[in-house]
Design brief:
By secondary structure, the protein is mainly alpha-helical. The longest helix is centred in the first third of the chain and has 18 residues. The N and C termini lie far apart (65 Å). The radius of gyration is 21 Å and the shape is globular. Helix content is 71%, strand content 0%.
Length: 331
């Protein structure tokens, strides 16, 4: 049980290193007690979080997550935490029944912080920030010092355009734990949406210092520099971390876009194809970024058929319904 409690505490920090350590502790707890249902369900949740933070691919976590969820539910079919883990797994699979699974978990355990927090994230992803805020505020009443709950609240407040309150929430995380990435990197979001690029870059830099294994943070720095047209700075940053994992989806996509922006289309296309051919995880829209590079190339070569084929292959969802055109603004 001590191992399990340590795992819960470490997982609240939500950086890659602490999540890996929490996973190891859960596995040790289960090795000592193979019917420790809470630890088994927690193992599934940590593996899912390792995927959602980009530390592990979906294929790497799929089988162990499924096994852990199945085992936890067999040990206790009425465990809300186990049902929440199942709901979170359905969510990363983009399964529509994820919301119903979260509702079931909440009915079983209406005052469990982890369930409230995970369900709030689901509602935020479903463009229902008002319901998300209701859930996360309940979670905060139950555990006002939880870093991950505060992080969730900050994201929701940002989505509701309450950016001042969002920044106050991230500042509260830094007060509780100055070493946590959750109060640093995510604080860039509200600044970016307000066009405060210098402040956003500062917090992205600070976030990467706090969690140097997380490659999303420096990739966001690169994206900001590219959006500002500072391609030299973007290239300098990419060269700093590309050697760590050159095949990381966000890194590959940024490399492709940077090459395209600086006129190196042949290399840009090669990198984009590399990303799409192996079906990398879509980190922060990286698959769309890679597809856009191929579209730019096709359009410049005046090959609209190629562009449409690429869209159908890699972004089929846009063909599900006819485009909505505003005749007053389209010209």
């Amino acid at each position: 049980y001590e191992l399990y409690l340590q795992a819960v505490q470490l997982s609240d920090h939500a950086n890659w290193e602490s999540l890996e350590q929490a996973l190891e502790l859960c596995e040790r707890a289960v090795a000592l007690d193979p019917v420790f249902q809470e630890a088994i369900a927690k193992k599934a949740s940590i593996l899912i979080e390792l995927h959602t933070t980009g530390a592990r691919t979906l294929e790497a976590v799929r089988r162990p997550v499924e096994m852990a969820i199945d085992r936890a539910l067999k040990l206790n079919p009425n465990s809300g935490v186990a049902h929440a883990a199942r709901a979170a797994y359905l969510e990363i699979l983009h399964a529509p029944e994820a919301a119903d699974a979260f509702e079931k978990a909440l009915r079983l355990e209406p005052n469990t912080v982890h369930i409230l927090q995970e369900y709030a994230g689901n509602r935020l992803g479903a463009s229902d920030p008002e319901r998300a805020l209701e859930l996360i505020q309940h979670a905060r009443e139950l555990d006002p010092l939880s870093l991950s709950v505060l992080f969730g609240e900050g994201r929701i407040l940002d989505a509701l355009d309450e950016r001042g309150h969002a920044l106050e929430t991230f500042a509260r995380i830094r007060e509780i734990d100055p070493s946590s990435v959750l109060g640093k990197g995510p604080a860039a979001g509200p600044h970016l949406t307000q066009g405060q690029f210098a402040r956003a870059l500062y917090w992205l830099h600070e976030g990467w210092k706090a969690d140097p294994a997380d490659l999303d943070l420096p990739n966001w720095v690169v994206r900001v520099y590219m959006d500002l047209g500072y391609f030299g700075a973007a290239n300098s940053w990419l060269s700093e971390f590309v050697r760590i994992n050159p095949d990381y989806p966000f890194t590959l996509a940024n490399r492709a876009v940077l090459e395209a922006e600086t006129g190196e289309l042949e290399e840009a296309v090669r990198l984009a194809v590399q990303h799409l051919a192996v079906r990398h995880d879509n980190r922060w829209g990286s698959a769309s970024m890679a597809t856009d590079v191929l579209l730019i190339d096709a359009v410049r070569r005046e090959e609209p058929g190629t562009a449409l084929s690429l869209l159908r292959a890699y972004r089929p969802g846009i063909f599900d319904s006819p485009p909505a055109v505003n005749a007053e603004t389209v010209l």
